[in-house]
Each structure stands twice: as C-alpha cells, then as structure tokens.
Design brief:
By secondary structure, this protein is of the alpha+beta class. It has four helices and six strands; from the N terminus they run H-H-H-E-E-H-E-E-E-E.
C-alpha cells in the first residue's frame, strides 16, 4: 500500500458505520445467492466485476458472465432438493490505496437436504475488493475465493 501506514493504522479508518454497511451488504448478497436469484447477486458487483469461486477455474467477468457461471455451476444440483447457505464471519476491512475497501472474510457453506443433517463444505476465505458508488451503494469489484481443503 502506498500510504506507508501499517494495516492497523489503515483499519482504524474503517468506521463502525461502514463496517455495519458492509455486513448488511454481505447479508443481502448471500441471501440473493442462496435463493438462486443470480441476477440480483450479480447486480451486487460492478459492471466489470470479476468472480472466481472455484479453484483452477478462470474468473467470471461482468454481471452477465457471473450469472452464466452461477447457472452452470448450480446445474449440479438439478433434481437434488438441497438448500445451501453461505455464512460470512470475521470480516476484516482495510481501506485500499485507491479508495476501495479490501475485505477478507471467512466463509462456510452449509448444505442441507430434507431430513438430513447440515454439512459444512467447503470452508473458504473470501478476498473482495469493494467500492462505493456515487450513490453510496457498495459493490464488489472483484471476488476471489480460496478453499481451505486446497492448501
């Protein structure tokens, strides 16, 4: 980072209000994904946003590309009455050098089938670059997900 400040000094500039706004943003974003509302989920990204959620797969680019990736990915659940829930926690925010917000978040994906017990798979770390638009809306510019079982 170009400011010469330590991560702790930069993190001190993240206000409680901004932190709460990011958590609120993530809650709505994940509810859209878990409800299979892929267009709504993609709308939480910038127009040129990138989304890399699977190891070894090129990131999806642009909102239409993100929708197409999610439709293709979720075909694996056709005929499977599964409910997936994405849980974000330990959100760490640091202001970036160009006014963006760098977010590192732990994520668990909980999978439940009728009559079954919840299963957690995978356990991930989500690396986001977030931006605020002119109307103070938060958007994801880029998302890269690393899976704990891949190290």
């Amino acid at each position: 980072m170009t400011s010469g400040r330590s991560p702790a000094e930069r993190a001190a500039r993240v206000t409680p209000e901004l932190y709460a706004r990011v958590q609120h943003f993530y809650a709505h974003q994940m509810q859209a994904l878990d409800s299979l509302r892929f267009e709504d989920y993609a709308a939480t990204f910038t127009e040129d946003g990138t989304f890399q959620h699977s190891p070894g797969v090129e990131p999806a680019r642009t909102r239409p590309g993100i929708v197409a990736e999610l439709v293709e990915f979720h075909k694996r659940f056709d005929g499977d009455p599964v409910q997936r829930r994405h849980w974000f926690g330990h959100v760490a925010l640091v202001p970036g050098p160009d006014g963006e917000l760098l977010s590192t978040t732990y994520a668990l994906v909980v999978t439940v089938r009728p009559g079954g017990k919840p299963e957690i798979a995978p356990s991930c770390v989500v690396h986001d670059v977030l931006v605020e638009t002119e109307d103070d809306t938060i958007r994801t510019r880029s998302r890269r997900i690393t899976h704990d079982q891949m190290f």
